[in-house]
Amino acid sequence: MVKHNVYPLRLTLDGEVIEEEAFLVVIGMTQSIAGFENMVVDAELDDGLMHIFIIKELAGVDMVSLLPALLSGDLKTHRQVTYAKTKGVRITSTEILHANIDGDKGDPLPLELQVLPQHIRLLVNSVI
Fold it and tell me: Where is the YegS/DAGK C-terminal domain (predicted)?
């Protein structure tokens, strides 16, 4: 049976603390994450929220059942997933772990992320 490593993580989400042994934490702000177009079906570009999926230990049937949940947009209801929405998150661990940011190795934990609404101004040329 294939079993993936899990890591002790502490996530602080807008003041609420979640401690989990997790295989993976996925954070996104739109419906599309990692090429899965409907991973967060209720996400809005301008809602000011991060959508966080804490994926716990996966083995056997849990691993097999994760894919349909991922493809259907029901990942947040999977029994091995903790889901939360937040404006800010701090992730720490007792182990030395590095973030993976869009496929690239990131800084070591702790990792602190915050949504900064209206920090990017877009100029759009009107076309007649």
Answer: 7-123
Range of the structural domain that residue 93 is part of: 7-114
According to the per-residue pLDDT averaged within each range, which of 3-12, 27-36, 69-78 is highest?
Answer: 3-12
Say if 124 falls within a structural domain.
no
Question: Are the beta carbons of 37 and 31 closer than 8 angstroms?
Answer: yes
CATH of the domain at 50: 2.60.200.40
Q: Would 107 be classed as within a structural domain?
A: yes
- Contact criterion met (CB below 8 Å) for 33 and 8: no
Q: How many Å is the Cα radius of gyration of the chain?
A: 16
Q: Tell me how far apart the alpha carbons of residues 51 and 100 are, in angstroms, rounded to a whole number.
A: 16
Q: Is residue 58 part of a domain?
A: yes
Report field, pTM of the whole predicted structure over 0.85: no
Query: What confidence tier does 1 reach under pLDDT thresholds 50, 70, 90?
Result: very low
